[in-house]
Write a structure and sequence with these properties.
single chain, mainly alpha, 2 domains, 2 strands
Length: 223
């Protein structure tokens, strides 16, 4: 507010004022950013404000809005006190706006991380549930055999002992997981088992000592 004139009105001192355009702009920015802190659920982020967001129409100017928001921000008491002690309205509003923006950014990052973790966890749960259901269906149909699980464990042990390169091991593990979904009587089951057995039998880490002497090789060829 900008005070234009004063006059004595019997008991009280009256003043004529005019709203500053810059103050209105600051109030609009604060309102907009504070509204953004409400997620789709309608509840405020716990990291921004400890109370429900106020109705924007409840405040006539940026000073009132800033004075309401400052004590409710989740910041240190000393920071709140510093904001409220600031006599310059524009600086006070700017400080509140700065804290809201910073806390909003932190809250959005936290929400994004929570969504990512929840998505990964849900996907792992879904896969585990589907595997258990497939095994149950196979048992009901008489397609599941105890020997197939034991065979898969033995193949996995042989792979670990062979210690193939990482890319080869990754592919072999992928094929091993497929065995959980294929009946042991299926021709594809035998193909996968043979494929993994070949990988496990290859001498990945057994190196031979080669003689690279060209003169000796020439003598052997001339015999």
């Amino acid at each position: 507010m900008c005070w234009l004139s004063y006059k004595d009105c019997a008991v009280f001192l009256c003043a004529k004022s005019s709203r500053l355009l810059r103050s209105c702009a600051r109030k609009s920015i604060c309102r907009t950013r504070f509204r953004r802190q409400k997620p789709r659920s309608g509840k405020p982020h716990s990291g921004i404000c400890g109370t429900r967001p106020p109705n924007s129409s409840s405040f006539d100017d940026a000073e009132q809005l800033a004075d309401f928001l400052a004590p409710n921000l989740n910041i240190d008491v000393a920071e709140k006190q510093a904001i409220l002690e600031e006599l310059d309205v524009e600086k006070r509003v700017r400080a509140v706006q700065k804290h809201i923006s910073a806390q909003l950014e932190i809250a959005e990052i936290q929400q994004r991380l929570q969504r990512d973790v929840a998505s990964q966890f849900s996907d792992a749960q879904r896969r585990a549930y589907l595997r258990s259901q497939i095994k149950a269906i196979q048992r009901e149909l008489g397609e599941a055999e105890a020997g197939s699980e034991e065979q898969a464990q033995q193949l996995r042990k042989r792979l670990e002992e062979a210690n193939p390169p990482e890319a080869v091991m990754k592919q072999a593990e992928r094929e091993l997981k497929r065995l959980d979904f294929i009946p042991s009587a299926s021709p594809e089951f035998s193909v996968i088992v043979s494929y993994i057995e070949i990988i496990a039998d290859l001498p990945w880490n057994n190196l031979s000592k080669d003689n690279l002497d060209l003169d000796q090789a020439q003598q052997i060829l001339d015999r």
